[in-house]
Amino acid sequence: MKGLWALRGFAKKYRKGLIIALLLMGVSGLLNAQAVYKTLPVFNQLFEELVGTEDAAQVARMHELFHSTLVLFCYLVAAATVSGGSMYLSEWLGQKVLLDLRATLFNHLQMLSMRFFEQQRSGELISRVNNDTALLQSTISANLATLVIAPVSMAAMTVYMVMLSWRLTLLMIVVGPVVYVFTRYLGRRVRRYSRLTQERLADLTTNVEEGFSLIRVIKIFGMEPEVVQRFGGTAQGVLRTELRAGRMRAFSRIATGILVSLALCGVLLFGANEIVSGRILPGSLVTLVFLMLRAGEEISRLTRLNLSLQRAEASALRTVELLGETCDVADAPDAIRIAQMKGRITFDGVEFSYDSEQPVLIDFSLDIHPGETVALVGPSGAGKSTVANLVPRLYDVQAGRVMVDDTDVRQIMQASLRSFMGFVPQETLLFAGAVKENIGFGRPEASEEEIVAAAQAAHAHDFIMALPEGYETPLGERGVNLSGGQRQRIAIARALLRDPRILILDEATSSLDRESEAAIHKALATLLHGRTALIIAHRLSTVRNADRIVVLDNGKIVQQGTHDQLIRQEGLYRRLYESSTAQQTGIIP
Questions:
Q1: For residue 588, what pLDDT is reported?
Q2: Helices assigned H by DSSP within 112-174
Q3: Which CATH number does the domain housing residue 519 bear?
Q4: Residue 357 belongs to some domain of the structure
């Protein structure tokens, strides 16, 4: 149980509640055994000859029987009450641990680098945060009480059974090792099947997530039957692995029941001989049988518990693996916090590759002055977006340096570095909250007036006011209630609200129509004044007014200058510009 043991730290902060719960469970186990043992005086008195005795003696014995029954009832009520209290505490602990575990896991994932997320399926991560942790919680909540109560009850019952008849108790004791060996063998198989089940559930979650996020593409291409068939195949895989584990659990229960039944039948047969020989009373035999029945139930519960723990162990190991992932972009121990930023960006001999095989940037050097607007252009795959990703240190370079204000970004705390930056990515993704929440995402403390001002600067205010609830209008998941151009302007407003020293626009106007694009560029001309801006665009008409245009090809700078300078030169920029202009006018060469 290495995985479950590795997660024990999440229960430490609740150790007081855990101690109370364990104590209650121990008391409950003792009371369960004591309650059964208290049937002894009841049965002994029931088996005594009452008929034919004097009325006074019969009344006295009935009084004793009533008293013994009342004591039995009190023990049963106490056992049930304490057991219920311990079960509630188990549920409370399980839910608390689940909350902490999910929060820690999600926080850990947020701290990992972009490279990690590029290598993982989102459905797999969702499954680990939801399904694996839920299985762990249910195991803790449902089985923590059993883990304590069952062994305590069995130990106490065994003591009482030995007190009644050690000979008959031996028949029950021999069952224990056989059940242990059997369940240990089945447990390993259940753990393997459970891990497969969790992996299949991750595949299923991925199918669901893709089926919803890509629903427009699926419908346009008429791929609904294929998507449904793929989902069905994955669901069948979950079913098969679950049924395999279910067969192991069912077989374990049957085998345990048979072994316990054999022991019980043996006790009844040999018990008759013990009564005849006078070594045990009839009432004692009945009590011993009751104790054995309850002990058998506890053995069965422990068997099921072991199999449940094996299922949870598979999830625990997957969770521990995820928590063990390290971030390849981490703050240095001596990283500094910056109080202000001028906005100078310097690339000094940068070498970068996403997969360590195909270089993206090769000996890349570029110096961007504070307040300068620099546009990066070039064919697809030239490295433009990579340059933009390196400035906020979403990745670390393999060689060379990326510097801000002459300080290597690796020597600056990431949160501090990025607090001075605004970023509008190529793929505009919004949250499902209201419009104002999306604009204020980068600055939660921003006032409503500041949010409106940012929207006006991004030329988004008019269409926002036309929405049903204005700035309070929910956008729906990924902002599906808005057009592409409207989503882009919301994203630009969000970046502008941060009042950044460095503003990175990665294809920020790619989804805008001509009228909206013209309005945005008028706003940007004012808003970019005094700020360092890095603009990436395929539509070269959008970067004509940049202070400098840097042309990239195969990870290298091949040209740079103003638009007027570059357009007069024979080279890549003029070819790209002529091709872009021809496509926009409808004349495709």
A1: 42
A2: 114-118, 122-127, 133-164, 166-173
A3: 3.40.50.300
A4: no
Q: Are residues 55 and 97 in the same domain?
A: yes
**Six-digit token string for 162:** 């030995």
Q: By C-alpha distance, which of 508, 369, 520 is closest to 427? A: 508
Specify burial of residue 51 (Cβ count, 10 A radius: 0-12, 13-18, 19+): exposed
Residue 569 belongs to some domain of the structure = yes
Q: How many C-beta atoms lie closer than 10 Å to residue 8's C-beta?
A: 9
Q: Which of 269, 246, 256 is nearest to 295 (CA)?
A: 256
Supply the pLDDT for residue 344: 93
73 and 212 both lie in a single domain: yes
Q: Which residues of the chain have pLDDT under 50?
A: 49-52, 586-589
What is the C-alpha separation between 92 and 448, in angstroms, rounded?
A: 40
pLDDT score at 60: 65
Beta-bridge partner residues of 422: 503
Domain boundary among 301, 323, 345: 323
Report the number of distinct structural domains present in the chain.
Answer: 3
Phi, psi angle pair for 15, to nearest 5°: -65, -30
Among residues 524, 470, 447, which one has the least CA distance to residue 493? 524
Do 482 and 538 have their domain in common? no
Question: Domain range spanning residue 190?
Answer: 2-323
Helix (H) or strand (E) holding 92: helix 55-111
Q: What is the DSSP string of 503-571?
A: EEEESTTTT--HHHHHHHHHHHHHHTTTSEEEEE-SSGGGGTT-SEEEEEETTEEEEEE-HHHHHTSSS
Based on the fold, state whether residues 385 and 444 are members of the same structural domain: no
End-to-end CA distance of the chain, in Å? 66
Residues whose CB is less than 8 angstroms from the CB of residue 249 and which lie 6 or more positions away in sequence, other chains included = 186, 190, 304, 307
Predicted confidence (pLDDT) per residue in 346-395, tens digit = 999 999 998 777 889 999 999 999 989 999 998 888 888 889 889 999 88
CA torsion angle for 408, 413, 418, 420 (degrees, to 10)? -80
At 376, phi and psi to the nearest 5?
-105, 125
Name the one residue in this structure whose structure tokens are 């500041």. 450
Domain-located, residue 382: yes
Burial of residue 144 (number of CB atoms within 10 Å: 0-12, 13-18, 19+): buried
Quick one: CA torsion of 160, 166, 171, 176, rounded to 10 degrees? 50
**What is the residue whose two structure tokens read 């299922």?**
311
Query: What pLDDT, on the 0 to 100 scale, is given for residue 532?
Result: 92
pLDDT at 390: 92
- ∠ CA 547-551-554, nearest 5°, is 155
Residue entry with tokens 């988004």: 460
Is 341 contained in some domain?
no
* Torsion of the alpha carbons at 467, 471, 476 and 477, rounded to the nearest 10: 140
Let me know whether 286 and 411 are in one domain.
Answer: no
pLDDT of residue 149: 73
Q: Is-contact 458 424, C-beta < 8 A?
A: no
CA distance 480 to 431: 10
- Alpha helices, H only, 13-54: 15-37, 39-47
DSSP of 308-339, one letter per residue? Answer: HHHHHHHHHHHHHHHHT---SS---TT-B--S
Token pair for residue 427? 């793929």
